[in-house]
Structure formats: structure tokens, C-alpha cells
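Sequence, please.
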């Protein structure tokens, strides 16, 4: 790997449900700005993955979570037109239960809301979010 290519960044995301609905955020920053995704973000040095998942959901949406369990791992590799790597994210995906709160976008989320399964085809999901929802939420 050439020296100027970025190192992989470790992140987390969480699949949360309230009844049949799932909690999604509209990304306000690259990569995948403007797409809808599971709430999540970067793991801080020394932070346990589950703690990062809880913190990120709370910071992005105001929702508190419980009972996290690991369900998937995703990789997001963003390349320039010439093939050079712009960014590489490794995302550990959890499933959890929403404990309390009403979604309110904050941090790096442009919007946050509970989405009905019937409405998922109407919004621009990230590729990995669509894959995780199809596999674990039957969407």
C-alpha cells in the first residue's frame, strides 16, 4: 500500500427497531453523504465497540439503546475515479433495543427518523444498510 493511502477507520452502527419500524439517519458527511444509513460512527481510541455503538446512536439521534448484539461487519471503501483509495471504513454492526427517546438529528446526521418497511424503497439507502436490513430486518 502506498504511503499516502489512508488507513482503515474502525466504526460501529446499530440496527434498532420500534415495532416494525427501523431507525435511520440521513448522512450529512462523506462518505455516502445524503444517503440513509443505520446510526453509528467512529470508535474512539480505548473505547469498547459496544460502548461506541451506544454513544454514537445517542449522539446522532438522542435515542438510548440496550441489549446490543453483534450481527455483521461491513466495509466501505471510497475510491477516486482513478482507483486511489479516498477512505476505508470497517464497520461493526450491532442490533439493539431502543430504550427511550424521540429521534432528533444531531452530530453528523442531517435527519433521523423511524422508517416503516414499506417506505424503505422510497429513500436512498447506503448499499450496506440495504444489505443489513434485507438480511436482519426482512426489509
Amino acid at each position: 500500500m502506498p504511503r499516502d493511502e489512508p488507513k482503515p477507520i474502525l466504526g460501529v452502527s446499530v440496527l434498532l427497531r420500534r415495532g416494525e419500524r427501523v431507525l435511520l439517519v440521513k448522512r450529512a458527511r462523506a462518505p455516502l453523504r445524503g444517503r440513509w444509513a443505520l446510526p453509528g460512527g467512529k470508535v474512539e481510541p480505548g473505547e469498547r465497540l459496544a460502548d461506541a455503538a451506544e454513544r454514537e446512536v445517542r449522539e446522532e439521534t438522542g435515542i438510548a439503546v440496550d441489549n446490543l448484539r453483534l450481527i455483521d461487519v461491513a466495509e466501505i471503501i471510497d475510491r477516486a475515479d482513478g482507483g486511489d483509495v479516498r477512505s476505508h471504513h470497517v464497520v461493526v454492526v450491532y442490533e439493539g433495543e431502543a430504550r427511550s427517546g424521540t429521534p432528533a438529528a444531531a452530530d453528523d446526521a442531517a435527519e433521523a427518523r423511524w422508517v416503516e418497511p414499506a417506505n424503505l424503497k422510497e429513500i436512498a439507502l447506503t448499499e450496506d444498510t440495504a444489505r443489513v436490513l434485507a438480511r436482519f430486518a426482512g426489509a
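The radius of gyration is 15 Å.
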